[in-house]
Structure formats: C-alpha cells, structure tokens
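Homework help thread (please don't just give me the answer)

Our assignment gives two proteins as sequence + structure token strings and asks us to describe the second one. The first is just a warm-up. Here they are:
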Amino acid sequence: MGGVAGHMAHLSEDLDLTFNELISILSKVASADIKNATEKVDGQNLFLTVADGEIRTARNNGDINKGGMTTDTYISKWSGHPAENAFTNGFKAVSAALKKLSPETLEDIFSNGQRYVNMEIMYPKNPNIISYSAPNVVLHGLQYFGDDETLDSRMLAKEKFRSLVKAVDGGMQNVGEEDWSIYGPKIIALKKLADGSAIEEVTSKIESFAAPVGMSATLGDYVSLVVKKYTEQVDLPNEITERLLTLMLDPDEAKAQGIKVTSLKKGLPKELQSVVSKLGAKTNSRKYIASVLKPLEIAISDFAIEVLRGVKSFFVDEHDEEVQRMRDELQKSIVYLKALQSSGDEKMGELVDKQLAKLGDIENLASSLEGVVFEYPPGSDRIYKLTGAFAMANQIIGRARRSGMAEELEEVVELEFENENDDPVVDTEFEDEPKRTETVAIIPGAFKPPHMGHVDMIKQYANQADRVIVLISAPTKGGRKLPNGREITAKDSQNIWNLYIGSDPKVEVYLSSHASPINAAYEISGKAGQREQAAEKMGMDPINKGDTVFLGASNKGGDAKRWTGARKYVGDDLKLVDPAQSAVEPLLRAGGEPFSASDMRELLGDIPTNKEELRDFAGDNIDGVLRILGMAALEETSGMSGGAVAGASGNFNGKKRKKNQNSVIRQENVDLNLVDSVVRLIMERGILQ
C-alpha cells in the first residue's frame, strides 16, 4: 500500500515470528480458521479526514503534517492526470456520503483532523491490474495521527472506524452520471484446503529450512546464524559481529546503543571494513535479509497460490472472465518483455524469468482478487498479507505497461516455463538474481541546522523513493555560527538529522567532503566506477546501474534551477527524473512564512524568549537539538528547564520492532549443511561483492 499507510508485511518479513508460529498461522489459513481475512484490493490509495467541518485529504506524510489538502487543492492536483477521474470522482463520492452525517458524528469519528480514514478507489475506466466491475470506494481503517498515539488511541480508532462503516457501508452516490458504491472491508471466506497437500508441503519446506536453528527460533535467529557463519569465515571479530547483528535486526536498539557502521569499521582492515559496510548499511541490510529468507518467501508464496486459487473478488461480477483477461495480458506482457530482451535489454528478460520461477504456470493466476489481509492473533495489531500469484503478475504486467507495451500484440506465443521442481535442494536463484532497480532521492545541503522544513522535504521524497540520501556538505567560507559564536559543525547537523529521522530504514545521512552540496550529489550519482568509489569512501551502498535518481528541490522560487545541466554529470547508466518534475511543495511555518536556517540560528540567541517559536523549527525534538548544539546549559542557566533529550519523532514508518525474549538459537548438535551451503554461495556468487 505504501504512502501514509506504510508497508504491510508478508509473513516472511516478520523477523520476530518463530517457525512454529509461522506454521501455526499457515495451518489456520489452510483450515479456514482465520475468520477476519478481508479482501486486499488493487486501487488508488487515499487518506481523508474532517477538520473544522471541512473535508481534507492526504496522499503522503507531508500532506498529513500540513493538516491535509483542501478540496480545491486536491482537485487541482489531479487536473490533467491519467487517473484524474478516479481520484476526483471517488473523492466526490466519499464526500457526498460523509456530508449526510451530522457534524457531531463527524467530529466523533475524525476527532477534528486527528484521525484519517484509509481508503482505496477502484475505477473500471482507470484500472491497475484487476479490472473491477463498477466504481467503488473501499474503506480500510481509521488511523490516528495525533501527537499522543498510544495503544488506547489505536483501539479507539478501531471503534470509531466501525461506527463509520456502519454509517456508510453499501451506500451509493451518483457522480458524473456514474453510480459509486461505498463499502467497508469485505470479509473473504477462505476455503478449507481439501487434501492437505499444500500445508504439508509448506510445513515440510519450513521445517527443512529451520533445521539449523530449530522450530522455536525466530526468522531473525536464522538470519543471525547465517551472518555469524559468514563472519567467522572472514575472521570478523565476534564483538563486531554481535553489534553488527543488532544494527541489522534491531535498529531501535542499535540507535539506543549508539551503534553505527562508521564506528564498527574503526580499526578494521580495509577488507573487513567493506564487509561491515555492505552488511550494515540500511539498504543493503534489507536486501541481504530478504535474500537469506528468499526460499521461505517462495514456499509461502506457493502455499498462498493454492489458498487463493478460485477465490472470487467481492467487486468482480464475472470472475472467470476477469481471470482469463488477466492471464491473456500476462502472456502478452511476457512476450513483449522477452522481445525487449532480444533487442538488448537484458533486465527485462531477467525480470520475467525471476517472476515466472515463482509463479510457475500462468494457470496459477486463478483468483480475481489481489490477496487477503488479516490480523493475527486477533486484537494484536499484527497485520499480514497473502498475495499468491498476483504479486508476480503485477510485476510483469506493470513493467510491460511502463515500458510502452501496445494494447494488442499481433501474435500471442505459447511459452514453455521452467519447472521450479527441477531446481536443486539449495536454490541459487536468490544468490544469483540481478539487483532490483531502485528509485533514489538525493537531498544535499549544509543544514546548519536542519529544521522541520528539511524534514518535510525528506518525508515527501521518502514517499516516492526507495532510498533517500541526505548529504551534508562542508562549506569552507566561514562556516555557520550561532549567536554565541559557536560554529555549527557538519557532525552537529548529522546528529540532529539522526534525532529527527529516528530509525527510518529509507533515510540515510552522510557527511560529504565537498563544499558544494551540488558537487556532493554529483559525486555519488556520477559515472559508474566513480560513484562506487565515492560510496565506499562514505560507507554507503552505491547507486546501481538502472536506478532512477531524484535530485532534491522545492517547487518554489526556482529552486530546481540549481540542477540545470544535471544530465551531463549524472551517470548515463542512471535514469534522471527532471528535477523540476520531481520537486516537492515546501512546508511553511504556522504564520505562512518559509522556514530558514538563518532564522533558526537567530532565534537561538535568546532561548528563554524564543523557546516556543523554536519548536516550530525543531518540533518535539527541541531539547535534543539544544543539547547537540551545546546550548542546553545556557537554557538552564536562564531558568528554563533543559529536560531530557527528546526521542526521535521522525521514525516515518511508525513501527518499533518487538524483541522476542524467548528466541533461542540451537548452537550444538544441529545440521548446518543448509546454512553452510547458503554461506558458501554468498561468498562464491557475490552477494557481498
């Protein structure tokens, strides 16, 4: 779902799950004992609230922070967009339904803009992969965005969501001579798997996979064992390995302990520094963990295909026809991408082969719904999804459409697909697969100091990109000084950034040796070879061939013009989005004036008087910022309470990883053959090269 909603986890992504728990959940799915599964729909996502009697909308966290978009702003946003009618008419349908409720009811549900309803707009004239039968809006849930979010506030939001659904479910609104229906989540009755073969097969695969650690261990324990086996072979000191594992598996704890890649590398030989960088850097760590658990992901995907086979969408009238239509488009997409491969675009063929290895036969695309979503255990707030064949079809069809596939191909070629059952016991696909291309946003600046305007820009780019790289330049002309004469160092700026962003896995902050922020950005996005050297020097993952690059800018005051001529400096093997097109709306202060670092520095000259205004610049992190700048004592001397360093309010994903206190790794008398094979492949086939 992404955007404001964040990431919804597959079962193989929950590192706190034990293998026993995983099998228990899948067994309940197989026996249809999961009673709260709802349909995951393939539409256009939107968040909506009511504040001061006015309907407001949001597509990203920046919109939320600004109190949502007004109706006029929202409508104008989609003017001329291919999905204009979907977004505007769906919005109008929901708005019409809400306007039938009393102001008191709306206030009770939305708490004057503190709760937003998460919804999906499904419009047959602007479909994604699934073509639904009629215009619908499906409400997913009510999310609380107040400053004091607690378990109680989340539970209350659930209660208010039930009230909202009761008030609008099944209602119909006429917009643009079309009838739009409003629905709450639709329960999907999972079918009981009759012969038991699917659950037996996935159970066997999971037990075999988990053998090195035992069924009572967690997925995170398995990753830990693989990492330890590898670091033993390259002679990385045990104490470094333990801290590295904390950084990889529990970022919140790593932050509390002050564990960073740069500190772990100190004193190590160059080759071990490289190991630490390539395992510990945020982006590479996620990829590595996913690669280690890839066989588990595939096993669960195979199971999900069987669970969802023949399951019908509530929103598709002609199930069989829609399934066949999707199969036809999938086959056309395969032919189209294979043709691109033949013309020299190897990545297209690699994508098809990778996805078909997981899908198997096209006939496995046998459901008219995207997947199911369920909470387990009930009341736990642990939300999982099963998507089966849709995930692979979505990758192939989506890529073909974006690559310019014509609506009709003259000929549909019958293809033979590789039988995944012929693969060896240890699947090498996850070691040898090509790197997934990413969208990378680069935001350079002096940031003396960073403020909420900068943070909002980062959040907006984080909602569009897979990675956001913040580069702190090193100006040579006199530095930026506080009113008391103290210079704000690049390290100060980095510490403040880390305070703001928390442990958000998308955002990376680095110090650059360049005086110019522009040159700093060009160094890491330049020609192949150059950017890898720059990344190695800074301890970051390089931007890879085929990646898409955003160069950070606001859409006000000609800010994007600083990137004029960027194309000749950015590597020609990278895709560069026109900075004017990717520029974001700047956040304004409460009074409507723009944020300015110089204004913030000036306010720091009189902290007692300006404390509340400084909160405008630093949010709830103001006390932490003052400590970093060495100004907390000044505040206390003036009779103000310095307080403790505020916790990071940034953690954009908002989910803290739970530590499993009962997780156990069996260290003795276990069969480590599979792990040895995985580690050998890692070393021989280049996951860390």
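The one we have to describe:
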Amino acid sequence: MFDKQWIFNISQHNRYISDCKEEGKTPSFVDEIFYKRGIEGAPGGLECLSDPYALPNMDRAVDRILTAAEEGERVAVFGDYDADGVTASAVLYHFLKNILELDVFCYIPDRLSEGYGMSCAAIDKLAKEEVSLIVTVDNGIMAFDEITHAAALGIDVVVTDHHKCGERLPECIAVVNPCILAERTPARNLCGAGVAYALVSALADALGVFEEIRRYVPIVMIGTLGDAVALTGDNRILVKYGMEHLSDFGWIGVETLLEKITAGKKNAITSTFILFYLVPKLNAAGRLGNAERAFRLLISEDAQEAVTLAEELMAENTRRQATEAEIVEKAMQAENRITTEEDAVVIAVGEDWHPGVIGIVASRLTEKYGKPSFVLVKEPDGTAKGSARSVKGFNLHKALSESAELLERFGGHEMAAGLCIKVENIRPFIDSLNKYSAEYSKYILEPPNLEIDAVILPEELTVETVARISELEPYGSGNPQPVLCVRNLQINHCAKVGENGKHLKLTFYSETTDGRKILLDGVAFSQGGYEAMIKNIGGGCSVVCKPELNEWMGRTNVSLIVLDLHDGDYNIDNSLKCVYNNDYITCRGFALERRLLAVMYKQLLSYGESFKFSDLYHIRETMRRMGIACTWYEIRNGIDIFTELGLIKRKDKQNFAIIKQSGKTELDASVIYCRAQVKG
C-alpha cells in the first residue's frame, strides 16, 4: 500500500465516447470496460468455438490417428508435467482409449531425471513398447532431433503444442499449433489442453460423436487457467463452460480433490479458486517428483483410488510449500545472496536446493527486490543450474545471449529462463548483466503499477452494477477482474483482523449530493501493518479496489477488496493516464510547493546515507507537526523528483540511497516538477 502507481486504462476512451455519441447512447463506466476489452457480454456456448479444422494440419493429424485405430496400432500420448500438460494428456488419452478404443498409454517425463519435452532416451523406451505413433501434447515444437530419431526407429509423430515456433517446424506427420495462426484468431491463445480438445473435437466430428466430448471441457478449463493464457476468444468460452459444468460429467478425481481442498465446506468455486487452490496441487506432483499421480487422478474412475491420489497430492503440495518457503528464506540470507544493492540483478546461490521450486523462488525474489532474479544450485561437477525471472524492461533472453560465452547453456524468453554456468564464471556473469542493464535495459526500479479500469463515485457502485461487471467472468490473464478507483470516500473504521492481525477490515462512507449516506465494507489482505497510517488519514480519500457481491442473512451487498488508497480526493477525471507520471496532470492539487520539497529533502538527509520507504510515514508526520500539510501523493511525487535530480537512488523496492551533492541542485532541472507547475 501507498507505494503504487495508479495507471488509468483509457487508451480507447475518446474513441468509445465518439462511437456512443454516433449511436445516440449514454455510456456507463461498465459499458466502457466491456468496450475496451473487446467483450460484448457473457461468453457464448461451445457452439461458438472455432472450427477445429481451422488449426493448421488438423486434417493430417486426424487421418493419421484414425489410421492407427483401423490398423490396431499402439499409440503413446507424450505429455508434460505441469497442470496444462497433465490435463491435455488426460483429455487426449481418455478419448483415444474410451471413444476410439485405441491401444494407448501416456508417457510423462520425470522433471528431475528427464526434464521438459521429448528425449531420445524416452523415445527408445517407447520403441521397446512397440509404439508406432506418438502424439505429443503441450510439447514437441522444438524437438527436431528427437523426432528425427523417432522416424529412424519407424515411429510416426504428431505434434500438438502451443509454444512459440520459428520458421522451421519439426519434420513429422503433422504439427498442430495455434501459434502458426494470425494473431487475432479466436483460437490463437489456446493452451496445450485447448489444442488437445480441438484435436478430439475434430476426431469426434469425423466419428459423429461430437456431443460426447463436452465432458472434457472442465478438464480443459483447469489446464487453461493453470497455464495463464489470455482468457479471450475460445479460451473464454472453454473456461466459462468448464466452470459451469465442473461437477456434471463424473470426473471423480477432480471432485474428490476439490472436496479435500474445501474440507467439505461449500466454498464458491471460481476461476481464482481453481487457479490458486486446485492447480497447485496438480503441479506439486511434477515439481517434486513424477506427475503421473496427477494424471491418474484426473482419469480415475475408482472412488477409493481417487481419495488416495488426492491425499497424496495434498501432502505433496504441503511439502512443496514448506520446501519453497525454506529455500526462499535461505535465498534471502546475505551469505547466499551474492549480489549487492548496487547490482542490477539479484543472484542467490545454494546447495541441495530442490530444482523443482527454484523457479518459484526466483519469482519471490523478484517480487521482493523489484529486480531480475536468478536462483542457482551448485552441482558436484562444478557447475550451477538455475532459473531466472525478470521485470518489465529487462529482456532475460537477450541478457543471457550477451553473456553466452560465460554460460554452459541457457534457454527461455523475455521474462523467464533457465541456465547452467560454471561456478567460477558467476562473478563475471554478474558484471556482464550489469553491463547489459546499463547499455540496453529500459528497466527502472519503480513501484508496482495498479492498472485502473474506471474512476467512479460511490453512488455508482450498486448491486446491479457489480452484477453487470461479473458478466466479464471468467477472470484471468488477458481479462483480469476490473479494478476501480472510488472517489469521495471517508474512512469510518479500520481494524486488524485475521491471524496476528495480518489483514485490515475497513468501513467507508460517503454522502451524496441529495443527502443519502452510503456505507461500504472492505478488506485489505496482508496489509495489517498499515493500520496506523490509514487511521491517520483525515478528510476524504480515493480507494483503488475490486468490487464484489457479498451475500449475508439473505441480503446482497457490495464489498471492496482494497488494493490501495490515498488521502485527499483528487477529483480525478478520465483524461488522466496516471496519477504519478506527471505527464497528464489536470488538477491544481498536483503541483508541489518548493518549501514542501525543501523540508522533505532535509528530513531525508537526517537519515544519513539511506532510508526505507516506511520512513516516509514518519517524515510525513514530522512535517505535519511543523504545520506543513502534505498528502501521500505529494510525498510519493517528491521521491520521484529527487530521484530524477539524482539526489536519491532506489536500491530495491523498499530501500533508497541518499546521494550527497557538492553543489546546489535547482528544482527547475526536474521535468516532473516543471510539468506539475505548468499544468497545475
């Protein structure tokens, strides 16, 4: 809280207003949100899905599989160990076995001993099983050598994948991959499970059993949410239908796992619930061992087997969480974090850290420090293997390419990567990354952004309005739950709740122009430490939140998931792009006085060589006692100005360094300051 940039998503606002005027309509903020996302309303039914034969080479894939059925061939589904790969494997395996009645089995490589995707060793195993056809799901698009090896052994391969591909494609029977399609095609963003469903849809169409495949959509829904693909086009339809029919098709394993997760309570099963509570259980098996148990759970038709497997996955996830927490703690310790605050990246090196969770650990480090993070595990052969996660503006793949001579191998993309490096090269590697950051990186340490869909008054937040907003569901990547900035609110109550006062319970009120009083309840999760700061806010405030409907005692009310708030009602209008970037300031209250900035800087100097973000609270209170009223925005904006002038430097998300100056620094040298004065 208090350290976030408020970004207003208004790129198409003017066009939308113009369109509405031409049509003689009065737009509401809800209509505008739908417009900006290219969504007209709730998603259609399965009949609105794209033609599966629109995917490239689908006809060749179908013909080869039907031939295998006619000839009685043995077929292997070659899967992957994450939730997308496991669900895709379950969908295709179940159809081939139960509808086509093929001699089929599923092969999912072990994450630790085999790694991702096809390997020649795995293909040798399948050859010994007398497999004549391999159908990949969620992998295979880059398996050039492996597919050539399979051909040499007399094994045909059909690749179904959704990962990016280059101009070169594997030389096999068929490559079914939506990435080959045009960007705006509804099927373009299908995940591995979505592609597998398209394949069984095409097969079902050929067999005349299309109605029977509806039962696979809930499984596809889990994979789609788990892979965080954009919930637009076909994905939105699949997730919506899958959520609505989650318990309608007798997937015993899924129902059993949900029952274990909820402990028999009637929790609302939302897309968020699936993503944060069910998907991690399926992923846990693949992270710490073999994903076969997750696959078996999905296809299980035995109630007792389902209970056993669900309990094993629950226990495995608990172990994964404990392992992850332990390594995160170790990675943050000074003896393992070998980079300094001056380095552009964070690198932690350890021994005996479980490789299945180091990617998650790297993400945690990036979240904490706001920098690209690398987590490396030393191997007995003198190398270190690891994972990396990045921030916007720092292209990991390009950075690693610039350091290629120091690496044994690497792979990945802009935001995530894997690598292997000799331990002796780690220090030169850090220097190389620093050089890359200085020369090519556009990444700047800055507060996290809150992208806001609309600025509204409390009276606009009705039950009917929030119900209309809910038509945007399902929420996920590409279609997140709308975030609103609610103006003209007063804080009526603030108190810590939950274990150890972890969360904040808030009550807001507002008075309309006709004298009506509006009360709104809210909760700020994991923000209990800000209780004193919030209670100290006087006057009105603007609250950034996600609205939800809450049913209690037969009544439905609007409640707020509070993401951030600031004192002062800035009367933000829809022409503002960002409260903090100072490029679009239209309100007089944004201009900062020289005296305020001078006093603030003097207070910062009293901290010596560095200060923390939390110190800004105490600085603000000191200034108030001096008779200098200042809002949190003014404090935040002052930090931006001092940073621009080179007076301070952000070391990470929470820490700042004070840079001593030999001469006088003029405020007019700050573009941020000058723009605020002109527009104020």
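TA reply:
I won't write it for you, but here's a hint about the kind of observation we're looking for: The radius of gyration is 28 Å.
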